[in-house]
Specification:
The protein is mainly alpha-helical and 521 residues long. It has 14 helices and eight strands. Helix 5 packs across helix 6, helix 6 crosses helix 7 and helix 10 runs antiparallel to helix 11.
Length: 521
């Protein structure tokens, strides 16, 4: 019983506690709601104040912006009005100018009408005068025909023939004066340019063309080179492709071969064998093979040195190798490489004097004989082979054309670069010491020159002087007139140029004079 009462009492207390908790909770919620309502009213009031402030600031800012924009519009309007005023003034001035021009045009039109009427009157008068002149000329012509006993066509032919003869004489005289002045000026410029080029270029000469002499320390070395039963000399000749000539020349052997590169390889190989002292077939083959392997670099070094001397640094490596080969090929008293370097220097000097591209001229001069490095391997002239090489390795069209035509005689349409290379090549080849001419060939050439000159009608005698540099032809005074001397000298020079090959140029002098001799007794 007590337990039941205790349980009931506990339940009652729980219910009372729950009711009281609900009451107090509702009261706290009511107080929180009241506080929240008060806060919301405060926030609403602050928001209204902020709204009023923002609206007030925006209104003031809008007023300020409107005022500023109105000021800007006023300034722009004022500026536009000023521009409009200027345009209006300009239009007014142009209208006034147009009115003045219109008045001038109207005045000119009236003047033109008066002039036209006056010209019409003069034209009618001139027509009348022309008619009268024609009738007068016809009358005079008939009178002249009766007096001269010649028709009009015959008189015209006679007059034209006389005028042609006078014109030919005047033209020949004028041509002679122009040629003399041109030759004098060209000789002056040419002498200056050539002398400058020669003074600034010097070169070395070589003597070997198909043989090379190798010095020996003593004559006993000849026996070692020959070897037992000649096996060493056979091995050298077989490995190098050259002929060894061992004669009575003291302390020297001669290497003979038309291929200068093989001859140079044999020379270096033999010098190394002599210095080493071990000369036998196996050692010979080993030494020659080693020299051949090294010789490619020697050739490249020669080409690079030549290009460096000229100041060219961008040549193709293959062109440099071909340049190096030219050192072992002779041209007269020089190697072809020396000749090419000399021509390049002369080209640079001439191009500088004439105002052309110096570097390009030097490049063309250095490469002009590059075909001689391969002309033994390909068909055709070395200039064609050289042009193909230059074209293959991307040289410029101007350089290719100069290499192709540097031996062409007809340079009438050639480029300035081709003309420079041609002139420099001739100058290098034909200067003293560069070439050797056999006496028999020289005499034959002078005789041919005299025969050509004597073949012309009117030539009484001819003389070749100054070692073939000048020809003097004497004409009969009765056979050739003064006016025809210029044509005769030109014809002789043209025929010499076409039928003979000679170094430099030949001066043709035609002399016509009358000489009478009498004696006083």
């Amino acid at each position: 019983m007590n337990v039941v009462i205790l349980v009931i009492a506990s339940a009652i207390f729980l219910i009372l506690g729950f009711v009281l908790g609900i009451f107090f909770h509702r009261k706290s919620l009511s107080s929180a709601f009241d506080a929240a309502q008060v806060d919301s009213e405060k926030i609403l009031q602050e928001a209204n104040k902020e709204r009023d402030r923002i609206m007030r600031d925006a209104h003031q800012e809008a007023k300020a912006n409107n005022k500023e924009r109105r000021n800007q519009l006023d300034v722009e309007l004022k500026k536009r009005r000023q521009e409009f005023q200027k345009l209006e003034n300009k239009v007014k001035s142009r209208e006034q100018s147009v009115e003045k021009k219109l008045s001038l045009v109207e005045k000119k039109e009236s003047d033109l009408e008066r002039m036209t009427s006056h010209l019409n009157q003069q034209e009618s008068q001139y027509k009348q005068m022309i008619t009268e002149l024609k009738s007068s000329i016809e009358s005079n012509r008939k009178t002249l025909e009766n007096i001269a006993s010649m028709s009009q066509e015959e008189a015209k032919r006679e007059l034209i023939s006389s005028l042609e003869e006078d014109a030919k004489k005047d033209a020949a005289e004028q041509l002679r004066k122009i040629e003399e002045e041109t030759k004098t000026e060209a000789e002056r410029i040419g002498r200056s340019m050539v002398s400058l080029a020669v003074q600034r270029v010097s070169s070395e000469y070589v003597n070997d063309s198909t043989v090379t002499v190798v010095g020996l320390p003593n004559d006993e070395m000849k026996g070692r080179i020959i070897g037992r039963e000649g096996r060493n000399i056979r091995a050298i000749e077989q490995s190098t492709g050259v002929d060894l000539i061992i004669d009575d020349t003291p302390e020297a052997v001669i290497l003979s071969c038309f291929n200068p590169i093989r001859r140079e390889i044999a020379k270096i190989s033999l010098e190394r064998l002599i210095a080493d002292g071990r000369i036998h077939p196996a050692r010979i083959e080993e030494t020659v093979k080693k020299v051949e392997d090294e010789f490619d670099q020697v050739i490249a070094d020669n080409g690079e040195q030549a290009a460096f001397d000229i100041g060219i640094t961008d040549l193709h490596p293959e062109l440099i190798k071909h340049l190096g080969k030219l050192k072992y090929r002779t041209s007269g008293q020089q190697t072809v490489l020396q000749h090419s370097v000399e021509v390049a220097h002369i080209c640079g000097i001439m191009a500088s004097e004439m105002g052309f591209d110096v570097k390009k001229a030097k490049r063309a001069g250095l490469l002009h004989d590059i075909g001689k490095a391969v002309d033994q391997e390909v068909e055709g002239h070395h200039s064609d082979a050289g042009a193909e090489l230059c074209k293959k390795f991307k040289e410029s069209s101007g350089v290719v054309d100069a290499v192709l035509n540097h031996h062409t005689d007809d340079l009438g349409f050639a480029s300035p670069l081709t003309t420079i290379v041609h002139a420099a090549n001739v100058l290098s080849e034909r200067r003293p010491g560069a070439r050797r001419e056999v006496l028999e060939t020289y005499i034959k050439r002078l005789g041919s020159m005299e025969d050509i000159v004597n073949s012309f009608e009117g030539i009484s005698e001819s003389f070749v002087i100054q070692a073939g540099r000048e020809i003097r032809a004497l004409v009969s005074p009765t056979g050739v007139s003064d006016s025809k001397i210029v044509d005769l000298s030109n014809d002789i020079a043209f025929k010499l140029r076409n039928e003979l090959t000679f170094p430099g140029q030949v001066r043709v002098t035609v002399v016509r004079e009358s000489k009478e001799v009498d004696f006083a007794k």
